[in-house]
Design a protein that fits this description.
This protein has 401 residues and is α+β, with helices and mostly antiparallel strands. It has three domains: 120 residues, Alpha-Beta Complex (endopeptidase fold (from Nostoc punctiforme)), CATH 3.90.1720.10; 125 residues, Glucose Permease (Domain IIA) (Distorted Sandwich), CATH 2.70.70; 93 residues, no CATH class. It has ten helices and 18 strands. Strands 7, 10, 11, 12, 13, 14, 15, 16, 17 and 18 form a ten-stranded antiparallel sheet that branches. A six-stranded antiparallel sheet has the order 1-6-2-3-4-5. 46% of the residues are buried.
């Protein structure tokens, strides 16, 4: 699949989302944040790279403004703003707080420059890779003898990277979560994730202690997707990492690491994240993903005190909750949540009564679905595990401050 069209479909799907300065998705954006989010989804920009419009404006090849207006995927910019040309005289952009993300006329806007990424003009497949975890290689790809009563002689279809339970696991390539859960792929045991890349290849991440993404979710290069563990038939905690071609046939992951210059189990290489295996120096960054969010624990579907505290802090910082952060989901918490939903265009026409009833949950599910965190799940008005997991994912991916 050509990366340009994948990128354009992604950013165009965000039309109608609100403009929030400094936001880069998945449900709120500023002008450069929309572009950064789209590039991260297709693996052309790693998390932590410069997201400012001035940096984006010098990427790729410089072209004239006139050419930019007629070139699909070109960036049009001024010293303080940047947009994406649709090639038909319109742009898709996060314009301002009043207009939000939308499609606008490209002409007469005072653009001072334009550029186009070389990858968009050349097409191509996945071009960057990240190390999926920090640790030591404990087992190579290939046939191996029986390891225990429970683990017979077999083709070991991946590479094992060993470290402590709870070590972050990252997406080696950008893509879409195709499967996630307990033994999601035949012949594999424990918690696993299967991600499909834009070029049709896939990677499998196995034996996780926690899964932090859901089926249908877009993941960026280097994005944290779970935690290392020892679930299933294992002899100790590790990440089992596999690489599949477009036909579902496994190959030695060392071929991928070598072709992209990534050292297995390290933090180096193209697009590699910079995770920490020791306690973070940033107070509050408990899951050691390099950012402090409203929820730093496992995505487990348990609406416990830590989840509630995160929700209350989220609502307080958005000026709809002024009560104590106590981790107790009472009437005032749900009143604030209902008010927040209304500011996002959901729960409109219903009474703000603090009751976690059917319509509150139904509108919550619709809101979570609009953020890409409840895809493929039923809008049933039931506050169950999948709804709570989706809420936890939103809190876990929203930075504080």
């Amino acid at each position: 699949m050509r990366e340009l069209e994948t990128f354009m479909r992604l950013v165009e799907s965000k039309a109608g989302c609100p403009y929030v300065w400094g936001a880069d998705g998945p449900g709120e954006f500023d002008c450069s944040g929309l572009i950064v989010w789209g590039l991260q989804q297709i693996g052309l920009l790693a998390r932590g790279e410069d997201r400012h419009s001035t940096a984006l404006a010098v990427m790729g090849r410089q072209i004239s403004v006139e050419e930019g207006i007629t070139t699909r995927g070109a960036f049009l910019w001024t010293p303080t703003h940047i947009a994406i040309s649709r090639g038909d005289g319109t742009t898709i952009e996060a314009r301002n707080p009043d207009l939000g993300v939308g499609i606008f006329p490209a002409t007469g806007r005072g653009w001072t420059g334009a550029n186009i990424l070389n990858t968009f003009t050349q097409g191509g497949n996945m071009t960057r890779m990240a190390s999926p975890a920090v640790g030591m290689v404990a087992s190579e790809y290939g046939w191996r003898p029986r390891l225990s009563v429970n683990i017979p002689a077999m083709l070991h279809a991946g590479i094992d990277i060993a470290n402590q339970t709870g070590t972050p696991v990252y997406a080696a390539y950008a893509g879409v979560v195709e499967k996630a859960g307990w033994a999601p792929v035949a012949g594999r045991s424990g918690n696993g994730i299967l991600i499909r890349n834009p070029d049709g290849e896939r990677q499998y991440y196995g034996h996780l202690s926690a899964i932090q993404v859901m089926v249908g979710q877009q993941v960026a290069l280097g994005q944290q997707i779970g935690l290392m563990g020892a679930t299933g038939n294992v002899t100790g905690p590790h990440l089992h990492f596999e690489c599949w071609d477009v036909n579902g046939k496994t190959r030695n992951p060392r071929e991928d690491f070598a072709s992209h210059g990534v050292i297995i189990g390290s933090t180096t290489g193209q697009g590699a994240p910079t995770p920490q295996t020791t306690t973070s120096t940033n107070a509050g960054d408990e899951n050691r993903d390099g950012k402090i969010t409203y929820y730093e624990r496992s995505i487990d579907g348990d609406f416990g005190s830590e989840t509630v505290k995160g929700l209350q802090e989220f609502l307080r910082d958005r000026h709809v909750y002024a009560r104590e952060i106590d981790g107790q989901p009472g009437r005032y918490t749900w009143q604030a949540w209902q008010q927040w939903l209304q500011t996002r265009g959901f729960y409109v026409g219903y009474t703000v009564d603090g009751d976690l009833g059917y319509y509150t949950v139904y509108e919550t599910q619709r809101y979570l679905q609009s953020l890409g965190q409840y895809a493929g799940c039923l809008l049933d008005g039931q506050f169950g595990g999948e709804t709570i997991k989706a809420l936890q994912r939103v809190l876990a991916t929203t930075r504080k401050g």
